[in-house]
């Protein structure tokens, strides 16, 4: 039986390779890691016009066959047939961005020079045409000496022509190719510029507008203030815009608790539903509007093309602490969740740079912290304005995010001078075109993020909350005795309180941070469940979490609690992925130790300072 033919998608990052892979393979895909490395191998089955099956491999985005990261090293090895157990692909499909032709043709020439059957997919021509850029695929094909097919992968335009070209690829006359073998990088860049000019039929003023925008947004003095002003607006909006929706959800859950209490007799089952499920899990679900608003801004920044500019702006700042702009994208991803952020460090070439980024990623204020911050801010920070359009609550939230960033930079500075000693490395990043965020893509992204949040509420948070409710509810208290005092959880909290009371934590906090190791949001549901079980009567139980916090906590305690969550690595999943990405327990244990140590120290400093100031 003959070997299955293979084809590889290869090209610069952001060329649309994944969209083209999906268009060619549909649901016939399998994803795993390459053996021995934490680099994803994505393969799928496609069929030529003759009906012959072909295995299609989507290789990591690269800028050169001279690798600068583990991802690029895998691409080089697979393309050149050097990867153990991975035969060299029979055909290369070089994917280039039609609107970034000059830059993408540099790598395309290097691949064509290998002398292998090759087809170029001139992708995203619709976006280029929208900007007034008209390209001649035939002229480019003549210059390169290989077939060039115009495609729009997301709309499956040009897919049939591309598949047909793949079927004929092994019959190519290799002698007609543009000779680039042995050329230096400057020579390839000059050739790419000339070929791009020869392929462009017309270009309007849109590109000049983009250049003018970059002169402002990437300016060394104007760029950073614009970025931080945008972030400031985002956190103001998280509170100002979300409040009506969050109040409506809270009112709905309170009403549902009342219905259950009115319909069911007193007992363990009713307490389970009202105290464990509705009060516990519901106290987290009410923060869904804040999550959606935050991610609406993040998605808009990504899809508009501004996110890459933010990485460029931050490169200079990060160089001071021994990192580069290449670390910015993983750290920015960690604002959503540290898990994909840590996984994104695979694109970082320098191992010490990558390790440092992994170790500081949990300090980025992930979306799981938002419910914790929101409930404490709502309880203890007045909803007043401190200037035109500036709310105090949003200002405090912005300050907490800044504290996480500053903490991460300070930790990186120390790590790069001690256990991960090394200097900052440079990086290359492609600046995508500016565009209006597609509403459909925005809607899909927001739905996915909302679904992830709700799924966590229905799984991890639900299980942790119910487990805590059981530990709080048994054994039953004797007459006159507090249920929390009599419970298993109460005895555990008493032991924890000895350690945590010096930094201002009360027993309820001591109890809440244990189940919050499953997920940070559990801290909110744990507090809500604890106060619900502790309620002396139905009126106290119905008060809600915020009034109970205001009645039982001092402001120094609340501020110390916020400081703890800026630093504490309260997420088992993050620890697990750090173990996988560092191939052992040494660095995850180190990460746990230094982050919990920092959380304890800064929570204590916050509490003692607040008490000294008379707050």
UniProtKB/TrEMBL annotation:
Residue ranges annotated for the FeoB-type G domain, each copy included: 4-172
TM stretches of this protein: 216-242, 277-299, 329-349, 370-390, 396-415, 452-472, 558-577, 589-610
Domain of life assignment: Bacteria
InterPro entries: Fe2_transport_prot_B_C, FeoB_GTPase, G_FEOB_dom, Gate_dom, GTP-bd, P-loop_NTPase
Keywords: Membrane, Transmembrane, Transmembrane helix
SUPFAM superfamilies, A to Z: P-loop containing nucleoside triphosphate hydrolases
UniProt key word NAD: no
Pfam family, one: Gate
Name of the featured protein: Ferrous iron transport protein B
Species classification: Bacteria, Pseudomonadati, Pseudomonadota, Alphaproteobacteria, Sphingomonadales
């Amino acid at each position: 039986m003959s070997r299955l033919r293979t084809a590889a998608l290869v090209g610069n990052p952001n060329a649309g390779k994944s969209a083209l892979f999906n268009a060619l393979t549909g649901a016939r895909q399998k994803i795993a890691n390459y053996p021995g490395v934490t680099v994803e191998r994505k393969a799928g089955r496609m069929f030529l016009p003759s009906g012959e099956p072909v295995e299609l491999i989507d290789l990591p985005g690269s800028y050169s066959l001279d690798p600068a990261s583990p991802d690029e090293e895998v691409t080089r090895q697979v393309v050149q047939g050097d990867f153990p157990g991975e035969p060299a692909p029979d055909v290369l499909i070089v994917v280039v961005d039609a609107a970034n032709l000059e830059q993408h043709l540099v790598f395309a020439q290097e691949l064509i020079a290998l002398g292998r059957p090759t087809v170029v997919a001139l992708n995203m021509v619709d976006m280029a045409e929208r900007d007034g850029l008209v390209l001649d695929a035939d002229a480019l094909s003549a210059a390169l000496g290989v077939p060039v097919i115009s495609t729009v992968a997301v709309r499956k335009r040009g897919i049939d022509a591309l598949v047909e070209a793949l079927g004929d690829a092994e019959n190519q006359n290799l002698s007609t190719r543009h000779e680039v073998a042995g050329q230096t990088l400057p020579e390839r860049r000059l050739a790419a510029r000339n070929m791009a000019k020869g392929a462009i039929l017309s270009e309007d003023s849109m590109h000049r507008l983009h250049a003018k925008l970059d002169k402002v947004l990437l300016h060394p003095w104007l760029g950073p203030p614009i970025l931080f002003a945008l972030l400031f607006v985002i956190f103001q909006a998280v509170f100002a815009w979300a409040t009506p929706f969050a109040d409506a959800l809270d009112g709905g859950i309170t009403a549902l608790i009342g219905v259950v209490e009115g319909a069911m007799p007193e007992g363990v089952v009713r307490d389970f539903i009202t105290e464990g499920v509705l009060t516990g899990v519901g106290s987290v679900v009410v923060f869904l509007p804040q999550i959606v608003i935050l991610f609406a801004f993040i998605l808009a920044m990504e899809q508009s093309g501004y996110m890459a500019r933010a990485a460029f702006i931050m490169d200079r700042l990060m160089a001071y602490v021994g990192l580069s702009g290449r670390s910015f994208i993983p750290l920015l991803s960690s604002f959503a969740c540290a898990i994909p952020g840590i996984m994104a460090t695979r694109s970082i070439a320098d191992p010490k740079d990558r390790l440092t980024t992994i170790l500081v990623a949990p300090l980025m204020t992930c979306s799981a912290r938002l419910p914790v911050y929101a409930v404490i801010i709502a309880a203890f920070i007045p909803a007043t304005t401190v200037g035109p359009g500036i709310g105090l609550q949003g200002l405090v939230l912005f300050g907490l995010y800044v504290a996480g960033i500053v903490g991460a930079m300070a930790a990186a500075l120390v790590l790069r001078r001690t256990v991960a000693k090394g200097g900052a490395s440079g990086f290359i990043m492609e600046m995508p075109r500016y565009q209006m965020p597609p509403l459909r893509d925005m809607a899909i992204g927001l739905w996915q993020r909302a679904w992830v949040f709700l799924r966590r509420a229905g799984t991890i948070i639900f299980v942790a909350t119910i487990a805590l409710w059981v530990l709080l509810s048994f054994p039953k208290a004797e007459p006159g005795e507090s249920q929390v005092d009599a419970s298993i959880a109460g005895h555990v909290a008493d032991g924890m309180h000895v350690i945590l009371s010096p930094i201002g934590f009360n027993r309820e906090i001591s109890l809440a941070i244990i189940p919050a190791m499953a997920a940070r949001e559990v801290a909110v549901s744990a507090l809500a469940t604890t106060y619900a079980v502790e309620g002396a009567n139905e009126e106290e139980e119905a008060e809600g979490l915020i009034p109970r916090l205001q009645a039982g906590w001092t402001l120094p305690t609340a501020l110390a609690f916020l400081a703890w969550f800026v630093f504490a690595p309260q997420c088992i999943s993050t620890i697990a992925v750090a173990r996988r990405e560092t191939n052992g327990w040494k660095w995850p244990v180190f990460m746990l130790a230094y982050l919990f140590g920092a959380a304890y120290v800064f929570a204590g400093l916050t509490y003692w300072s607040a008490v000294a100031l008379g707050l």
